[in-house]
Specification:
Layout lengths: L2 H17 L8 E9 L5 E12 L9 E4 L34 E2 L4 E2 L4 E5 L14 E2 L4 E2 L9 H15 L4 E7 L1 H12 L4 E7 L11 H9 L17 H15 L1 H5 L6 H18 L2 H9 L16 E7 L10 H10 L4 E6 L7 H4 L5 H14 L1
Parallel strand pairs: 3-6, 3-9, 4-5, 9-10, 10-11, 11-12
Antiparallel strand pairs: 1-2, 2-6, 7-8
Helix pairs in contact: 2-3, 4-8, 5-7
C-alpha cells in the first residue's frame, strides 16, 4: 500500500475509534435548599454530584438515569481528562460501566441522554456526614440525619427536574444502584418505561443487625472516637482492611489471578487497589447508607410497577447469588409486571456487570431498544 494511502486509512480508523468514545466527562454539582427527609428532618442544603453524557431531547423524554453502588461513585462512563474529575478520582479514570454506555453501546449516548447521579450520603461530592453542619460549622459526623432509599430517589428527582427531564426511558444500576432502580419503579411508577436492576434485589438482604456490626468493625480503629474521627487523622487503617475483604467478596482474586499468580504478590496488589478508596471514602457514609437499607423493601408495592423490568444477576456473585432470582421473578410476575431475567456467565462475581459488561451488553441493548420504541 502506498504510504499516503496507508496514512489515510490509519487516520480514518483513528477517527472511527474516536467517534465511539465519549468526550471526557465532567463531574458537576446540583444544590437545592430545605430538602425534607422522610424522617421529617429538613436538610438546609442538599448537594448532589452528577455527570451527564449525550444530549437531552427537546421534549425531555430521552433520558436514562444510571445509579451506582454502595461504595462506588457516579463516574459511570468515559475517561476523565485533565480536569473535571469527581472527588476521589483522577485524570484517566474510566467509568465503571464504560463497556455499556457510550456512542453505539448498549445504552447509546447518540440516542439517549444519560444522567449518572451520586447518592445523597455518599462522599463523592454530595452532601454526606463529612459536610459541614451549618448549625455547628463542623462536620455532621454521626449526627448526620437518618436517610432512606426513598430520600435518595427523591433527591435524584429534584436533579432531573433541574435538568429538564420530563420522562425517563429507564433507570439502571448495579448493587445499591439496583435498590434505587426498584425504588424508582414504585415511587414514580409512571416516570420511566423500564428499570434495569443488576446484581441487586428489591429488598434489603442483610440482617437487622448489619448496621451495628459495621459500626463495631469501624470501632476497631483507634481513631474512631464514636464516629468523630475527622480531627483524629481518620480511620483509613480499618477502611483498607475492610476494603480488601470487600474486594475479595466482589471477585477481585479471580480478576487478578492470571496477572498475579503468586498469592502473596496478589494480596499486595489487592491492598494497593484498596488503599486509594480507603483514603477517600468516608466511614460515616458507610454507616448512613447501610442504615438507609434497614427498612428497604419494595416488594409490597410491586403491584404499582408499570415499568418493564430487566433483572440481572452474576453466576458467581456471593452477595446476590442466582438462588434469589426465582423468588424475585415469581413476585414480579404475580404482580403483573413485565419482567425478564438474565444471568451473566462470569467468574468476576459482584463486579461482573461492569468488568464483564460485554457478556450481557446484547441483552441490555435489546431491552433498551424495546423501551425506545415506547418513547
Amino acid at each position: 500500500m502506498h504510504p499516503l494511502a496507508f496514512a489515510a486509512t490509519a487516520m480514518m480508523a483513528m477517527l472511527a475509534s474516536n467517534a465511539l468514545a465519549l468526550q471526557p466527562p465532567r463531574s458537576e454539582l446540583f444544590t437545592v435548599h430545605n430538602f425534607a427527609l422522610e424522617s421529617g428532618f429538613i436538610l438546609p442544603e442538599l448537594t448532589l454530584a452528577f455527570e451527564t453524557y449525550g444530549t437531552l431531547g427537546a421534549d425531555g423524554r430521552n433520558a436514562v438515569l444510571v445509579t451506582h453502588g454502595y461504595t462506588s461513585s457516579h463516574h459511570i462512563a468515559g475517561r476523565y481528562g485533565a480536569s473535571g474529575a469527581a472527588k476521589g478520582h483522577k485524570a484517566g479514570d474510566v467509568g465503571s460501566w464504560d463497556k455499556l454506555i457510550g456512542p453505539g453501546k448498549a445504552i447509546d449516548t447518540d440516542k439517549v441522554f444519560v444522567i449518572a447521579s451520586n447518592m445523597l450520603g455518599s462522599s463523592y461530592g454530595s452532601t454526606y456526614p463529612g459536610t459541614l453542619n451549618p448549625a455547628t460549622n463542623k462536620p455532621y459526623g454521626p449526627d448526620f440525619p437518618r436517610i432512606t432509599v426513598g430520600d435518595i430517589v427523591r433527591a435524584q428527582k429534584k436533579l432531573l427536574d433541574y435538568l429538564g427531564v420530563k420522562h425517563l426511558v429507564a433507570v439502571a444500576g448495579p448493587s445499591y444502584g439496583g435498590y434505587q432502580a426498584f425504588q424508582w419503579s414504585v415511587t414514580y411508577p409512571n416516570f420511566m418505561h423500564g428499570i434495569v436492576a443488576v446484581v441487586s434485589a428489591p429488598k434489603n438482604t442483610r440482617g437487622s443487625d448489619a448496621t451495628q456490626k459495621l459500626i463495631d468493625q469501624l470501632a476497631e480503629d483507634a481513631n474512631w472516637n464514636g464516629g468523630w474521627y475527622y480531627e483524629n487523622g481518620g480511620v483509613a487503617g480499618i477502611l483498607t482492611k475492610m476494603r480488601v475483604a470487600t474486594l475479595k467478596v466482589y471477585g477481585v482474586e479471580a480478576r487478578l489471578a492470571a496477572e498475579f499468580p503468586d498469592p502473596t504478590t496478589r494480596e499486595a496488589e489487592i491492598v494497593k487497589i484498596a488503599d486509594p478508596w480507603a483514603q477517600t471514602f468516608d466511614a460515616n457514609s458507610l454507616v448512613v447508607l447501610r442504615r438507609a437499607l434497614e427498612r428497604f423493601d419494595t416488594t409490597p408495592q410491586f403491584k404499582n410497577i408499570s415499568a418493564k423490568v430487566l433483572y440481572v444477576i452474576s453466576r458467581t456473585d456471593k452477595l446476590f447469588p442466582p438462588s434469589i432470582a426465582p423468588e424475585v421473578m415469581q413476585a414480579l410476575k404475580a404482580a403483573g409486571v413485565d419482567a425478564q431475567y438474565y444471568e451473566i456467565d462470569s467468574e468476576l462475581g459482584h463486579s461482573a456487570s461492569g468488568l464483564d459488561g460485554e457478556k450481557w451488553a446484547p441483552v441490555l441493548k435489546d431491552f433498551m431498544a424495546g423501551l425506545m420504541h415506547q418513547s
